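About this split. The held-out portion is used to measure sequence recovery: a designer receives only the structure tokens and must propose an amino acid at every position. Recovery is the fraction of positions where the proposal matches the reference. Here is one held-out target exactly as it appears in the evaluation file.
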């Protein structure tokens, strides 16, 4: 039977062992754990903090899907611009004053035009001003 405790333990172990050496395998484990409803914040944070942008984006998407907004807010200054774009998309999904404040801070610091465009679009979608 898929979804047993043994499956969950194996997938969790796979994620932790592969996240630094084989991010693709870690992404697959993360997706499987998400499908089983077994993602905890430690895994989400580890995925989002990773140097691999695909793993980081996957972790942020999963965090947003389960409403783990503190994981999202914890990565507004991620070193990868592609990941900051994912953070902006998640903050757009969250909405509210906290999301707007984080997006405004991101936009004020942003150096990459494509990321700034995503941040600005998220702010506009939330009905907030993106600058002076």
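Reference sequence for scoring:
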């Amino acid at each position: 039977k898929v979804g047993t405790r043994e499956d969950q333990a194996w997938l969790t172990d796979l994620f932790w062992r592969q996240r630094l050496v084989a991010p693709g395998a870690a992404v697959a484990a993360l997706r499987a754990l998400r499908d089983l409803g077994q993602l905890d914040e430690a895994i989400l944070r580890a995925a989002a903090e990773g140097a691999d942008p695909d793993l980081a984006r996957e972790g942020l998407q999963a965090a947003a899907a389960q409403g783990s907004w503190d994981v999202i807010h914890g990565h507004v200054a991620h070193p990868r611009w592609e990941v900051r774009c994912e953070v902006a998309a998640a903050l757009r999904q969250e909405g509210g004053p906290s999301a707007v404040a984080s997006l405004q801070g991101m936009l004020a610091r942003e150096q990459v035009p494509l990321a700034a465009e995503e941040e600005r679009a998220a702010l506009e979608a939330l009905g907030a001003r993106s600058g002076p």
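Annotator remark: The radius of gyration is 16 Å.
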